Structure formats: C-alpha cells, structure tokens
Amino acid sequence: MLFPLELKLWMILVNWIGMSCIPGSEGYNTKLSFNDTDDSDSESDSDEADINLEAIAKKFGLEHADNASTELCYKEEKSCPLSKVLKAKYLDGPNVYVDFTSAQLTWRQTHGGDEALVRAVGVSGPYKPYVIDATGGFGTDAYILVSYGCKVRVFEKHPLVASLLEDGIRRGGERLGPQFRKNIQFQFGDSLAYLKSLNRSDMNQTAIIPDVIYLDPMFPKTKKSALVKKHIRFLQNVLTPDPSNDEDLMRVALNTARRRVVVKRQKSAPCLGGVSTKTFIKSNRYRFDIYVTNVKSKFGNW
Ligand SMILES: C[S@@+](CC[C@H](N)C(=O)[O-])C[C@H]1O[C@@H](n2cnc3c(N)ncnc32)[C@H](O)[C@@H]1O
Fold first, then answer.
1. One domain for residues 114 and 150
2. What's the gap in Å between 283 CA and the centre of ligand 1?
3. According to a count of CB atoms within 10 Å of the terminal CB, is the N or C end of the chain lower?
4. Which helix (H) or strand (E) covers residue 176, if one does?
5. For residue 302, is it within any domain?
6. Residue 11: band (very low, low, confident or very high) from pLDDT cuts 50, 70, 90
7. 300 lies in a domain?
8. Is the CB–ligand 1 distance for residue 99 below 6 Å?
9. What's the 214 CA to ligand 1 centre distance in angstroms?
C-alpha cells in the first residue's frame, strides 16, 4: 500500500525515467501523410488531423522523409468509429494500428478460456500480479493481462511502434473504461534502462518492484514467415534484430522481478539467452518459459 507522498515521489521518478528513456534526439524518418485523401468517407477536419499528426510526430521524434519506407497517417477508420486512428504501413503493405476493441480480441477475451500467458504470469484467484511488459510491441499481450486484472506497465522503445501503441491505449481507455485506464501505464522508452534503474541504490527508495517481468523478444524470421500476420510482418520489417538487447533484458529481469520472469518463445526455440528452465506453459502457437526468481525486496508494491 502506497502513502500519498510515496506515490508522488514515484510519479516523479517515473517521469524522470521516462524522459531519460526516450531514444536519442536524432529522430526516426517516416513519411508523415498529412494529406491522405484515400479516406473519402472521412468527416474529419483535415486541419485538426494535421495538427494532431504533427504533435504525435514531435512527441515521438518522428521526422518526415518523402522516401522513407514507412508511412504514418492519422485519420478515421471504419472499424474504429468515433475516433481518429494512427495507422502505419511499410512500403505498399497493409495499414497496421492498435485496436483493443477489435472483434478478434473481444472474442479472445470472452471465449478464450484459460490464456496460457495469464497462467504463466501466475494469475490465480484474487492474486493479480503487477507486470512490467518490457517489450510492448502492439500491446496485445499487455491488454490480455490487463483484461484478466493485472496491473501492467508496458514499455516500447521504437518511436513508430510506440506512437501506434500509445494511440491504441488512448482509444482503448475511451472505450474500455476506467478499469483499463487505471491498470495500464504506457512508457515510451527503453525498458532495460528502467529495469537497471530499479536496481540502483540511489533510486530504489521509491521504486515499485514488479512481481513479474514479461519478455516477448522478436522471433527470427523463419521459412514460415510468409504466413505471419500483418502486425508481426510490420515489426519484422521495421525492427532490427538485437540479440544483445534481448539477452541483457533477460539478465536484468532475472535480478529484478519479485516473483518470476516469463518469456514468450516459438514452440521449438531455445530458451532466451541460453538460460534454461523446466517450467513452461504451451499454447497452440507459443511456449511461455517461466523463471521463478523470488527476488527479495523491501520496496513497495503498485
Ligand atoms: C515481438 S514485439 C512484442 C509484441 C507484443 N508482445 C504484443 O503483444 O504485441 C517486441 C517489441 O519489443 C520492443 N522492444 C525490444 N526491446 C525493448 C526495450 N529494451 N525496451 C522497450 N521496448 C523494447 C521492440 O521494439 C518490439 O516492438
């Protein structure tokens, strides 16, 4: 239980870390599509769309380049009424955006039964852990955890992906209500820097140590990659694989999580960073490796 002063200090710490996590000031080049005329049904005021896209670009360090391989627009979307949607595409590929109210996710939430991920993080009866999702991506896993009652702090460091995720969380908050807004926190920046800061003696007086740290590093492209869904394909196109980042995340997570680290893997993939475990839960498509940590900490809970 946090006292108000501790809570304030924590918010200061979170903001400070958030600022310091923001990737370098060099910017990320993408084509900012201010005058997208495809959407003939759109009733949006184009000036407003321009202002918003400009503000979003500024916030995430996105810089316009005509010849960029990615393109970003902010406009109405038939499947997401009442709100403009931030959408990106890679070359001539399909638009991708975050929609936590999609039919697919809603079906999964209401008919999905036991989610392997939810069991892997240890949700059990009234116990709902505080999870740091250190590899946010499009936020689907974070959303699933929140919908099962976990509090989730989700990090994403890639400027373009982060802008899409924040937009999805904002719209999700409008449609899914206060419980969703209360239980998900988005952070643009490097989760590795944040996790390291939790271990620093000058920081940890106000730190909130996560019960669980969840990692879902990008899978390498396989022969079956042609079949992957458009969101994964988009990530494969815009992200550069960084095995040392993934291994560092694993190492720091194991020293930080109060109870466990959970890593999503392809079913037959080796364990992340060669750190083996005999505890895992399999779903139809994935394996969730579980590392019990039981890191003792005297610091606060969410
Ligand atoms: C495979 S995706 C995660 C997909 C996600 N689980 C979902 O449900 O959509 C991995 C993401 O982690 C992000 N990432 C990797 N290392 C990170 C770090 N150190 N800090 C923040 N984000 C990171 C990548 O930019 C990428 O978007």
1. yes
2. 20
3. N
4. helix 159-176
5. no
6. very low
7. no
8. no
9. 10
DSSP state of 300: B
Residue 235 Cα, ligand 1 centroid: separation in angstroms? 9
User: According to the model, what pLDDT value does residue 302 have?
Assistant: 52
124 with 237, same domain: the answer is yes
**CA 22 to CA 242: how far, in whole Å?**
18
Decide whether any atom of ligand 1 lies within 6 Å of the 253 Cβ. no
pLDDT of residue 14: 46
CB 249 near ligand 1, within 6 Å = yes
Tokens 């709100």, located at residue: 83
**Is 155 a pocket residue for ligand 1 (Cβ < 6 Å)?**
yes
The proportion of the chain whose per-residue pLDDT surpasses 70, expressed as a percent, equals 79
Residue 41 in domain: yes
Question: Would you state the pLDDT for residue 77?
Answer: 85
The half-sphere exposure of 289 on its side-chain side, counting CA atoms within 13 A, is 22
- Nearest CA residue ID for atom 9, ligand 1: 138
Are 221 and 126 in the same domain?
yes
> Ligand 1: which of 157, 194, 236 to mutate, most ligand atoms within 8 Å of CB?
157
User: From the CA of 208, how far away is ligand 1's center (Å)?
Assistant: 21
The reply to whether 176 and 210 lie within a common domain is: yes
Residues 6+ positions from 94 with CB-CB distance below 8 Å: 230
Residue 271 has pLDDT above 70, yes or no: yes
Strands 151-156, 212-215: pairing kind: unpaired
Domain-embedded: residue 65: yes
User: Does the beta carbon of 236 lie inside 6 Å of ligand 1?
Assistant: no
- Give the sheet arrangement for strand 62-64, strand by strand: 62-64, 28-32, 70-77, 80-90
